[in-house]
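Fold it.
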Amino acid sequence: MDAIDELLEQNDAYAAQFASGGRGAAPKKQLAIVCCMDSRIHLEAALGLEIGDAHMIRNAGGRVADALRSLAISQTLLGTNEVAIIHHTDCGMVMFTDESIRRKLREERGVEAEDVEFLPFTDLEQSVRDDIEVYRRSPLVRHDIPVRGFIYDVNSGRLSEVA
């Protein structure tokens, strides 16, 4: 059985006991979280969140530049008024450069990606600061609300704020 068929089987069991329907789309905590898509991070468990508490915006590296559209919708249409940006230790985004992934795409798939910014980084704490700055420069998002940055340790499960 492939992974997607396993998901469908698990969904049948989940849907049979599902009791969270009928909730509104606006998150109860009025919180949006931008985080990496890394499969080792179970945000809801790590942060004590339940279904409907927060918007979870995930992408490679938890990069704000990729999340601005979603943040604008979250804030403007669904009332979020706080943002947490979470990067993590042992992130794959430090293992490549834009040029190295472009070269790999070209060699392995014949794809030209010169116009794509993949947003890798070399300094984890600085990447959080950089993303806060990207947020602050964007006209799409609110500038009158708290925006804070964190690093999640994939080995301990601990979240640390970046000053």
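The domain at 28-161 is CATH 3.40.1050.10 (Beta-carbonic Anhydrase; Chain A).
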